[in-house]
Amino acid sequence: MQPRNMSMSGVVDLAAVKAAGEAKAKAEQARAEAARQGGPAAVPASSLVIDVNEAGFEQDVLQRSAEVPVVIDFWAEWCEPCKQLGPLLERLAHEYNGRFVLAKVDVDANQLLMQQFGIQGIPAVFAVVAGQALPLFQGAAPEAQIRQTLDQLIQVGEERFGLTGIAVDASAAGEAQAPAPAPPGPYDSLLEAAARALDANDFPGAVQAYKNVLSDDPANTEAKLGLAQAELLARVQATDPQQVRRDAAEKPADVDAQLAAADLDLVGGHVEDAFGRLVETVRRTFGEDRDRVRLRLLDLFEVIGPEDPRVGAARTALARVLF
User: φ and ψ at 168, to 5 degrees?
Assistant: First the structure.
């Protein structure tokens, strides 16, 4: 069956919603039956990453999206960035252990899907949640930003559609347990050098030092925070604050002007103003501009820290305008 047209950028497609509703009802019946038989059936870990074509799109993606968010990786064999992004997404799919399913689409073999999603370049990553297609990002993004995007997607799936993921049976026949990764670090000397550079206002030096740590240990919390701070201060140092404020007031549709003003807001302690400005800019923009603003907002979240309630409120606001 041919895939249905689906909604993009938050515009609801009634056909897709109807299909998702029907699929959700079937999924609920299946879960109820599984519960009567002793609990929901677990799927093998191999089911977390699937190859999808046009013929199987409705079953593999649309129907499945009524149970769990489906992340779609549009790729091609000749695409070098795809070879970097694809393995990362596959690893994260297994790490998230059923919170989302990764569907891989070879654009050379599935031109109709590529056209239907409006793909202009690859790699391109979308999600389908309850039958609605949502653009996530394009290009081989850093792992930390991909994780943040996935976390937001999962949060929206849970809060708006009740999608809590699928159970995974890691002990299924043929499943091999991945070896435990070697512990990273230590990075004390590199982190100390980065902190000294930051204190000396050597922001380029601090940025590079933190990136050196993250290239080997992408989850290093101290390096992530330090990098976000160093990049923010470097951007602000290069601006004229008064001109930035004038530009932001006179050019509300200018993405660069709003990004610069948000940086000043944050450095000046006006955290909620900075977040609100960028959430509103995300709402007004599309395509690459929207993705650029969203990623800057995620960077500012790193500066403040995920435990701050203002970050939680801004994440919720961002999810509303994105999804």
Answer: -120, 130
End-to-end CA distance of the chain: 27
Contact 237, 201 (CB under 8 A): yes
Catalytic residue among 71, 82, 194, 260: 82
Residue 18 CB partners (closer than 8 Å, separation 6+): 131
* Nearest-10 crossing angle of helices 221-237, 188-199: 20
Whether 175 contacts 199, CB under 8 Å? no
pLDDT value at 204 more than 60: yes
Contact present, 133 and 5 (Cβ < 8 Å):
no
Residue type, 59: Q
Catalytic residue selected from 79, 146, 248, 264: 79
Band the pLDDT of 84: cuts 50, 70, 90.
confident
Give pLDDT tens digits for 230-270. 999 999 998 999 999 999 999 999 999 999 999 999 999 99
Cα→Cα distances 61→3, 16, 76, 100, 157, Å: 9, 11, 19, 11, 15
Tokens 């046009």 belong to 54
Active site residue 79: yes
Q: Which residues pair with 104 in a beta bridge?
A: 51, 73
Q: Which is nearest to 236 in space by CA: 268, 212, 281?
A: 268
Over the stretch 106-161, which tens digit does the pLDDT of each residue have?
998 998 898 888 888 899 999 999 888 889 988 888 888 899 999 999 988 888 88
Phi and psi torsions of 147, nearest 5°: -60, -40
Query: Catalytic site residue 82?
Result: yes
Name the DSSP letter for residue 236.
H
Residue 319 neighbours by CB distance under 10 Å: 16
